[in-house]
Amino acid sequence: MKLKRKKGMMIIPTNAMSDVAFLLLIFIMLVALINYRKEVKIDYPEAHYSISRVSDKKNLEIWINNSGLTFIDGTEASLNAVQECIDELYRNAPDTRIHILADKNAPYKNINNVLQILQLIEYRVVSFVVKDES
């Protein structure tokens, strides 16, 4: 690369800057592809659905057993009762965490109904709890 001098000033040619930027962009894209997340197929353990609380009193537990029945803190409830309870909870204590404990063989339709209620109310403090086999 030949540099030209004009009365004490040095001029650096910038013609190839777009080529360098393009090559840098390709390099970053290739490196990003190398670090992609690999997923492992796992079999989730069955959630224990006995009538007992898992932790703090600020938690609301929604249990769904393998026959699709829904329980709120150990008491059987319909979907309307679940919605009313979550709505009231959201108005009174919006920082309360909701734990969803569903049996491995529970119909997904019943779990989805509870999730739709939470989505409708826009409740964001939700956890799925499973029993650890170890």
**What's the total helix number?**
3
Unreliable stretches: none
Provide the β-strand percentage band.
15-25%
| The number of domains | 2
Within the CATH hierarchy, at the fold level, what is the topology of the largest domain? Nucleotidyltransferase, domain 5
Task: Tell me the helix content.
Answer: 25-40%
Structural class: alpha/beta
Summarize model confidence as the mean pLDDT. 76
Morphology call: elongated
Q: Span between N and C termini?
A: 66 Å
Radius of gyration: 28 Å
Major pleated sheet: 5 strands, mixed
**Number of separate strands:** 7
- Using the coordinates above, name the CATH class of the largest domain: Alpha Beta
What does this protein structure show overall?
This protein folds into 2 domains: 4-34; 59-128, Nucleotidyltransferase, domain 5 (2-Layer Sandwich), CATH 3.30.420.270. The protein is 34% helix and 19% strand. It has helices at residues 17-34, 79-92, 108-121, and strands at 4-6, 9-11, 59-64, 70-72, 75-76, 97-102, 126-128. The radius of gyration is 28 Å and the shape is elongated. It starts with a strand and ends in a 6-residue tail after the last strand. The model has no long low-confidence stretch (mean pLDDT 76).
